[in-house]
Amino acid sequence: MSRKKEFNAKYSPEYKIAVIMDMRENHLSYRETARKYWADEREDNYKNRLKEWERVYLTEGAVGFMTERRGRKSTGRPRKRPLDKEIENDLIAENQRLKEHNQYLEAELEYIKKLSALVLAEEQKNGKKPK
């Protein structure tokens, strides 16, 4: 025997308030309220939902239904604080200095490579063994 698949329905805050107010004004139990509003479905599932709605209404009032409570709360990525202008300028200057130093070292390395290739070619031309 297959059971009907149940979905998490999203009820509007106005609907939740109306159900809870009706339950409280008419002194209905959870089971009676579940039968009244969800007659064709299993009332056990809705008793817990009504208990939760009543708890939210009693602790936070009608405003409590306006917030989304389903799912895991997102901690999100922490916001980055903007840097001070002085620190940002120092970082930009340091970055520029390092780029210039890197260009100098790359040029020096190219010079050394070319020099060693010339020395090697000269030694081969004179018949000496390379080191």
Short description:
With 131 residues, the chain is mostly helical. It has helices at residues 13-25, 30-37, 43-60, 85-126.
Descriptive notes:
This protein is mainly α. It contains 4 helices and no strands. The chain has helices spanning 13-25, 30-37, 43-60, 85-126. The relative contact order is 0.06. The model has no long low-confidence stretch (mean pLDDT 84).
Spans where pLDDT lies below 50 across 5 or more residues: none
Structural class: mainly alpha
Can you write the helix and strand succession as a string? HHHH
Helix content: 55-70%
Which whole number gives the mean pLDDT?
84
N- to C-terminal distance: 88 Å
Assembly of the depicted chains:
single chain
Walk me through the topology.
Elements: H1 13-25, H2 30-37, H3 43-60, H4 85-126
Keywords:
single chain; mainly alpha; 131 residues
